[in-house]
Amino acid sequence: MTYGIKNESEIMAKNIELYIDHSEFDLSLKGNLYHIVCPTIADFNIYNVLATVGVLVGLGFDDRMIIEAISDLKPVNGRMELIPNKHKITIIVDYCCHTKDFENVFKFADRVSRGNIIAVLGAPSKRHMARRKKIGALANRYLDHVILTELDDRGENIEEICKEIQSEITDIPSIIIPNRAVAVEQAIEQASPGDVVLLLGKGHEKFIALEVGQREYEGDKAIALKAIKRVYEGEEENELQQND
After folding, report:
1. Mean pLDDT, the chain, as a whole number?
2. How far is residue 71 from each of residues 33, 68, 74, 162, measured CA to CA in Å?
3. Across the chain, which distance is largest between two alpha carbons, in Å?
4. Angstrom distances, CA of residue 32 to CA of 12, 63, 69, 189, 229
5. Is-contact 20 6, C-beta < 8 A?
6. Within a 10 A sphere around the Cβ of 192, how many other Cβ atoms?
7. What is the pTM assigned to this prediction?
8. Angle at Cα 40 formed by Cα 37 and Cα 46, nearest 5°?
9. Are 120 and 149 in contact (CB under 8 A)?
10. What's the N-to-C CA distance of the chain in angstroms?
């Protein structure tokens, strides 16, 4: 059983429409066409939806059950995950490992954003060094502002890693904030309604890898949610005042 978007396949997505918080397309399945609205975002994730359809067909599910299932798909934690908020800021957490992953996420954000695109990102320490300038060049092409920070800490100087990426960011503002939690908070503080904030590289992970072992990290999602409450709802300030 084959699936695809561009090439004729047994399972196909046609007439794809991408939105900041969902996707819509016509699913071609067994000679029938079904209009699908699902919470999965970005065109590259449509392939994952089609793969899921293929698995369900193989398991013997009928069309109605398949349509209901994919219309209610839940995103995987840390994989193009939208962080809910009431302030009209789109915050996306994604694991982003390879250069192509960064390009796909940047292209999606560029396509659907109505405001600025702000990204928090870094590169692995002592690994895949050739990717650093490539990521910087992609950021320079698609983004409006970049905050460079740690991804891990395996003994290489974090600021030097960030400077390698930054060397290719020549047309847009970029800053280096080595502490990742502070970098995420800064991105939330800087964002305005309509902006897209991309928190890239850690995904669901709640640790920073060290040269030996790892240290705890609260996670991009948790830090972003706290920053939203502090910046837009003043919860942290209220708590501090109550404790005085």
Report:
1. 93
2. 15, 5, 9, 40
3. 68
4. 11, 9, 17, 48, 46
5. no
6. 11
7. 0.92
8. 85
9. yes
10. 65
Q: Which tens digits make up the pLDDT trace of 44-56?
A: 999 999 999 999 9
Average pLDDT rounded to a whole number, residues 60-77: 94
Residue 169 corresponds to which tokens in the numbers above?
């960011």
Taking only the tens place, the pLDDT of each residue in 184-239 is 999 999 999 999 999 999 999 999 999 999 999 999 999 999 999 999 887 544 44
Q: What mean pLDDT comes out for the span 104-131?
A: 95
Amino acid at the residue 17: E
DSSP string, the chain: --EESSS--SEEEEEEEE-SS-EEEEEEETTEEEEEEES--SHHHHHHHHHHHHHHHHTT--HHHHHHHHHTPPPPTTSSEE---SSS-EEEEE---SHHHHHHHHHHHHHH-SS-EEEEE---TTS-TTHHHHHHHHHHHH-SEEEE--S-BSSS-HHHHHHHHHTT--SS-EEE-SSHHHHHHHHHHH--TT-EEEEES-TT--EEEBSSSEEE---HHHHHHHHHIIIII-HHHHHHHHH-
> What are the tens digits of pLDDT across the range 146-196?
999 999 989 899 999 999 999 999 999 999 999 999 999 999 999 999 999
pLDDT of amino acid 235: 57
The CA angle 223-224-227, to the nearest 5 degrees, is: 85
Contact between 141 and 127 under an 8 Å Cβ cutoff? The reply is: no
